[in-house]
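Bench notes, afternoon.
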Amino acid sequence: MAQVKPLRKLKLHGFNNLTKTLSFNIYDVCYAQTEAQRREYIAYIDEAYNAERLTQILTEVAEIIGANILNVARQDYEPQGASVTMLISEEPVSARQIAGEAAPEVEAPGPLPDAVVAHLDKSHITVHTYPESHPHGGISTFRADIDVSTCGRISPLRALNFLIHSFESDIVVIDYRVRGFTRDVKGRKHFIDHKINSIQNFIARDTKERYQMIDVNVYQENIFHTKMLLKEFDLDNYLFGMSKEELGPRERERIERRLRKEMAEIFYGRNIA
């Protein structure tokens, strides 16, 4: 995996004010033929990616990028779906520092008070899940939206491969953007502090071999966009509540064609006739 390379060692005036945001849309596609199978699929996804499990994933993300967790809010929804929001900081922050008091010798344990939101809303990790199904065509999908937004030196790109592998990802849509600027000691503005020409530079080689990828980048605005579509297709990996051995050749072909169409529509962002 490529590392985040700084442009050069910058001598900054004060804090690094750059905000780096990595956003994912991750999709899992499944064929569930009957209403009962669709309900079972949604129940399975809700259990596999409930708020507790998502909190574990985001906690590992925070550890990977070297961030300190300040507060966690999580929620499971009815009839389906879950959300987790985690406030993070580059440096450990104590409760007294938030209140403007002198820092104690030992950092305050546990979540910090609500006031932390106003001070540290630029650095956060969030995830929201969207399981859904439709009776037409037997297709069910699971989408997870993930945002890792940091300010300072820590980079969300370090968690890129971990997040891709943490979900069963048929399609991955990734956006990365660097916002704002920071000043060096001479007052010169720096609008980015590391080298990047594609998100693909930071994706592990074995992952790149498994996916078809396309880029849409706006270099002058420090905006990078990569879409990934899984290359290998084993029908058994997409059938819920049945196996391909139970299906005749024509039925297998019909279901595979339907699944590939669904994945292509998500990947290209349009309905295909």
